[in-house]
Amino acid sequence: MPGWTDLHVHLGSQSSPQSYSEGFRLDDVDYAFRSVDYAKKTLMAGFTSVRDLGGEVSPHLRDAINQGLVSGPRIWAAGKSIATTGGHADPTNGYNDALSHLIGPPGPTEGVINSIDDARQAVRQRYKEGSDVIKITATGGVLSYAKSGDAPQFTVEEVKAIVDTAKDYGYRVAAHAHGEEGMKRAVLGGVTSIEHGTYMSDEVMKLMKQHGTWYVPTIYAGRFVADKAKIDGYFPDVVRPKAQRIGALIQQTAANAYKNGVKIAFGTDMGVGPHGDNAREFIYMVEAGIPAPVAFQAATIRAAEVLGVDDQGVIEVGKRADIVAVPGNPLEDIQQVMKVDFVMKDGAVFRTPEA
């Protein structure tokens, strides 16, 4: 079948109980070396393309892969996510007063905005840094060091400013969003996709259909954090209740979205879980009542639509030679997706049954 695309990964990191302290100890170079391993694991799992939604090393990893220096999937890199002060991607969340005063308040260069002008500047900074796509955190998040996981974090006007400026550079905008109000504002502001969508209401689904907005469920991430939240000490105290509450809901949201005709594309939020396990999302989609053929389309031709490209996602003359194979029939046994034994990207073979 065509090579798979994961529309939501973070190749520069992988969560663990040490992740929070590592942010103070490790440099970008450390994360870059790790990302090489994560990228190879992702490719060998059958994912020939990814959209990396947040991480400073991703544009550089993309370039290294494109130059043939390391092996990995084709990357659409967001670079730094765009947030508001105290929002999900504010890099100073959880800092004590002394450290916050020492560093100073982050601004558009760091991806933190508080006005329409800031919004425009942040997008232009992402362009300067070589991004391919823009990621905003339209609501709170699960793993950030902040109490709310679903409160809205941009005005509609700020989202529109981001989307309009992104269009100047040919960029599309993906919106991390758990809460209903933040999703509404993101859709009305013109984003291409909603990521996670935990508390997606019928009203939000209707809006998404009206605006042609895609939904990338990331069921894997929800199940992973809900499971890890059962372990004492795995997450900080401020994170654990969010992981318990929000994580368990995403699979049902995906089921509801499919039943209501929302356009669904494939994404895992891998980096929350272990890189290379991406295909398990197919299993979770099928468990949610999404037919296997629809799930595979979500990771191929539909994912290409989200990216705005027409040269991949199908096996056809003139298209990219991206192919993945498994030993059995995944339409009859979805567990076959975990047994990938052949991977080709751009005509180059990276995995064979003998390897």
TrEMBL record:
Q: Is the keyword Calcium assigned to this protein?
A: no
Please give the Pfam families that the UniProt record associates with this protein.
Amidohydro_1
- What's the superkingdom here? Bacteria
Q: What molecular function terms (GO) are annotated for this protein?
A: hydrolase activity, acting on carbon-nitrogen (but not peptide) bonds
Q: Which key words are in the record?
A: Hydrolase
Q: Which PANTHER family is this protein grouped with? A: ALPHA-D-RIBOSE 1-METHYLPHOSPHONATE 5-TRIPHOSPHATE DIPHOSPHATASE
Q: What is this protein called?
A: Amidohydrolase family protein
| Organism from which the protein derives | Lysobacter soli
